[in-house]
Amino acid sequence: MTPPLSPPSLLPLLLVAFNICFSLAASNSVYESFVQCLKTRSNSSDNISDIVYSHSNATYETVLEQYIRNARFNTSSTPKPVIIITPLTESHVSAAVICSNNIGFQLRIRSGGHDFEGVSYVSDQPFFILDMFNLRSISINMADQSVWVQSGATLGELYYRIWEESKVYGFPAGVCPTVGVGGHISGAGYGNMVRKYGLSVDYVVDAKIVDVNGNILDRKAMGEDLFWAIRGGGGASFGVILAFNIKLVDVPETVTVFKLERTLEQNATDVVYKWQSVAPTTDDNLFMRMLVQPVTLNKQKTIKISIMALYLGDVNSVVPLLAEDFPELGLVTEDCFEMSWIESALWWASFGKGTSPTVLLDRESYHVKFMKRKSDYVKTPISKDGLQWLWKKMIELEEPGLVFNPYGGKMNEIKETETPFPHRAGNLFKIQYSINWKDMGIEADKRSRSLVNRLHGYMTSFVSKNPRSAYLNYRDLDIGITKNWSYQEGKVYGESYFNGNFERLVDVKTVVDPHNFFRNEQSIPPRTIKAWNEKNEGSIPPSTSKAWNKSKPYVMIILFMAIGHII
């Protein structure tokens, strides 16, 4: 006969029951309060409940998972939002900011979901997601070659709409068509025209943002300091980006692409060594990305390099150019393919020859995988001895790879203080560290992240120092996070991403969001927020005390409701 459960044995069951009931009660109560607030604050006559999803909504999981681009943050243990808001109008966004602040919940802002660390849709504190995918209009004015593009649009949609209007204009942004415009541009997104034209933010001439008070501001209304900050400083630290007004750039009717591969047995070391001096200094019309990957060929472990290139011109120009600048590469006419700029966008996104540009409108064409990314900047070439040592380490690790992206050209002409993105002149190339894996679970996650961290460690002597710089759009929480939203914590990762521009970003944040409503693990902190636990251990952080006072009545009601369910 099974003995009756003792009181200590009942405790875990009671805690589980409490957590379940608390979660359901909390979600329902907060949902009702939020929807009522949204109805009051919104100027729209739409049915507000149709754009707000709680756990009890049948399509909640579908909406949540639709724009999760990293499988690491789509597990049963991943914290989920209490509410997801999918605004249809600008007034919905404004009301969502006001109501989230009033109720006292964090607001995470998602445009495309490609944040490598998932901070646009994950938090370890109770939070809402403001999902911008419905706000994706694109309005093109060919009279002045400008475009108003809302933050929920994807790069693929933007490229397609530009191509509909003109075959001789483009925009210098990323090569992944499902990336959201809002996060990409506000984080200083770049692409394969970076050497010719610089960054996406270098062509932003206006913007619309919702501030912490729910005001909708354009460039004139927000002022030049805030306008500067959201062009590379990450918009989510300062407000909700509604749209950017961008200028288009000239592209020729015919461009050329090629991809060449070499192994160590095919002079890869010589090619990589020479690439470091050629890729950042050759004709500005040429961008040569290089992938470095450990592989096994014919049962032999080796290193394979792949050079993918875009040349803004025809094959008869690029082949003799590289014959002179880069004979080690051995490029011949047969390696090259001429096409239109929009076709090159498809080629870079790995779509096959003859694919219709309409595929760029497919927001679901992204294969979600477990991944980890890191970044570095290289200011002086790595020696051949250094490269050979690096190959040995990469072969030992077996899995992590590197992607080298050359700078130079236009990047050398723009001052490092022109935008928050400081990595301009003096940088030969940027490195992306990359590892993907298929297995679920904590052990697979730890193993894969350990491998890429070891490779990152091996590269220390070859990359920038004091600070060791990193790229915001390749977000890496290993650099540092803020738990208490203090200036000192923020400075650790802030100086890596922004170098000396971090201080100006802090000044802007202090003015526009002094209570730090817009925050995440690597957001810009206001200068007035101190590391509260250093002086007031156990108390509520200053940045959240205002929110706690607002939400305290809701939490107490929910607590009693949960206890009532258990009893």
From TrEMBL:
Residues 1-25 form the signal peptide. Keywords: Cell wall, Disulfide bond, FAD, Flavoprotein, Glycoprotein, Nucleotide-binding, Oxidoreductase, Secreted, Signal. Its main location: secreted. It comes from the Eukaryota. The keyword Lipid metabolism does not apply. It is found in: Secreted, Cell wall. One of its GO terms (molecular function) is oxidoreductase activity. Residues 77-251 form the FAD-binding PCMH-type domain. The keyword Cell wall biogenesis/degradation does not apply. Its cofactor is FAD. PANTHER family: OS08G0158400 PROTEIN. Belongs to the oxygen-dependent FAD-linked oxidoreductase family. This is FAD-binding PCMH-type domain-containing protein. It comes from Gossypium barbadense (Sea Island cotton).
